[in-house]
């Protein structure tokens, strides 16, 4: 296969970096997670312009000067799918500082760009999409810096996510639920979170969660379907007594949550509103619905 690297398609095995790559040492870089789905008209990347926009917003927050335009990145993303003959794929664009210099100033360092794509099934397992997953509130909070920096999908932000995900796995759970510094529910390690109670759809405000593109899609679907939506700070016990809960994300798609901290959510199965939103999501990404 091929990876797009600084403007050229290079063979997969040649898309390597030096051991002194700046972003490898300090963790400053930004990335995206996108999916292409098989549709009647071939592979279609779901909401590509929005993902590219968020990637450039992340770079702006981190003050990384990217030498490519969003249009070039959009084109390159499609090229990666074509060149690899992929029908469906997970896509990973990345901006990072190379090995041209060290030190925190990172002055004048070149921002490198790469885009890779590969076939990837459902992130939390096919069974998870139907049965739902078991989740544990994490001992790691969403922010490891004392400022709200959640608009950037930045590699330096994922230490907590990784520690939280591992902690949940080591404890026998499928995924972690991270709280913000005040103790309100923020999001999963790589997913936004929703709950349903008495027919109302709730999701945390975006003060401590990534502006998920799947989250936005689900909010649009719910609004179309006339489901009332409330965005507010939510506590973990509100989730404990919810009728339904689910995660959203490009990787996790729409994954029902059947248990949080060993408490069954609703009847412990995928709830009706979750199922309706999930099925509309899969119809839309596969091009069976035009929205
Ligand atoms: N929250 C975090 C921390 C993420 O890394 C992701 C991943 O993409 C999401 C939420 C979901 O965002 P999206 O739906 O745009 O993929």
From TrEMBL:
Protein's GO biological process: aspartate biosynthetic process; L-leucine biosynthetic process; L-valine biosynthetic process
Cofactor(s) needed: pyridoxal 5'-phosphate
Matching InterPro entries: Aminotrans_IV (IPR001544), Aminotrans_IV_CS (IPR018300), Aminotransferase-like (IPR036038), B_amino_transI (IPR005785), BCAT-like_C (IPR043132), BCAT-like_N (IPR043131), BCAT_family (IPR033939), Class-IV_PLP-Dep_Aminotrnsfr (IPR050571)
One example GO MF annotation: branched-chain-amino-acid transaminase activity
GO cellular component term of the entry, any: cytosol
Entry keyword annotation includes Amino-acid biosynthesis: yes
Family matches, as SUPFAM superfamilies: D-aminoacid aminotransferase-like PLP-dependent enzymes
Reactions it catalyzes: L-valine + 2-oxoglutarate = 3-methyl-2-oxobutanoate + L-glutamate; L-isoleucine + 2-oxoglutarate = (S)-3-methyl-2-oxopentanoate + L-glutamate; L-leucine + 2-oxoglutarate = 4-methyl-2-oxopentanoate + L-glutamate
Keyword Protein biosynthesis attributed: no
Keywords tagged on the record: Amino-acid biosynthesis, Aminotransferase, Branched-chain amino acid biosynthesis, Pyridoxal phosphate, Transferase
CDD domains in the record: BCAT_beta_family
Pfam families to which the protein is assigned, alphabetical: Aminotran_4
Pathway annotation from the record: Amino-acid biosynthesis; L-valine biosynthesis; L-valine from pyruvate: step 4/4; Amino-acid biosynthesis; L-leucine biosynthesis; L-leucine from 3-methyl-2-oxobutanoate: step 4/4; Amino-acid biosynthesis; L-isoleucine biosynthesis; L-isoleucine from 2-oxobutanoate: step 4/4
EC number: 2.6.1.42
PANTHER family associated with the record: AMINO-ACID AMINOTRANSFERASE, AMINODEOXYCHORISMATE LYASE
Function: Acts on leucine, isoleucine and valine.
Family: Belongs to the class-IV pyridoxal-phosphate-dependent aminotransferase family.
NCBIfam families: ilvE_I, PRK06606.1
Name the UniProt record assigns to this protein: Branched-chain-amino-acid aminotransferase
Organism of origin: Igneacidithiobacillus copahuensis
Lineage, opening ranks: Bacteria, Pseudomonadati, Pseudomonadota, Acidithiobacillia, Acidithiobacillales
The encoding gene: ilvE
């Amino acid at each position: 296969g091929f990876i797009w690297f600084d403007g050229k398609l290079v063979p997969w095995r040649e898309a390597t970096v030096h051991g002194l790559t700046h972003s490898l040492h300090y963790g400053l870089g930004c990335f995206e997670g996108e999916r292409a789905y098989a549709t009647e008209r071939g592979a279609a990347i779901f909401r590509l312009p929005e993902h590219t926009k968020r990637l450039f917003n992340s770079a702006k927050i981190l003050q990384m000067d990217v030498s490519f335009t969003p249009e070039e990145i959009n084109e390159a993303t499609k090229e990666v799918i074509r060149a690899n003959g992929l029908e469906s794929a997970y896509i990973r664009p990345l901006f990072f500082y190379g090995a041209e210099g060290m030190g925190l100033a990172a002055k004048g360092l070149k921002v490198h760009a790469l885009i890779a794509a590969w076939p990837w099934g459902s992130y939390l397992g096919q069974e998870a999409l139907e049965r739902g997953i078991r989740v544990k509130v994490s001992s790691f909070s969403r922010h490891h810096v004392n400022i709200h920096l959640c608009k950037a999908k930045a590699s330096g932000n994922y230490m907590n996510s990784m520690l939280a995900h591992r902690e949940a796995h080591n404890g026998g759970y499928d995924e972690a639920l991270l709280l913000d510094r005040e103790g309100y529910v923020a999001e999963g390690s790589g997913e936004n979170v929703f709950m349903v109670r008495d027919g109302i759809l709730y999701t945390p405000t975006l003060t401590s969660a990534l502006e998920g593109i799947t989250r936005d899609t689900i909010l649009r679907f719910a609004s179309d379907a006339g489901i009332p939506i409330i965005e507010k700070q939510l506590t973990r016990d509100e989730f404990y007594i919810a009728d339904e809960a689910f995660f959203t994300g490009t990787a996790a798609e729409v994954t029902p949550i059947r248990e949080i901290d060993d408490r069954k959510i609703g009847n412990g199965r995928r709830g009706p509103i979750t199922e309706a939103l999930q099925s509309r999501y899969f119809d839309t990404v596969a091009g069976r619905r035009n929205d």
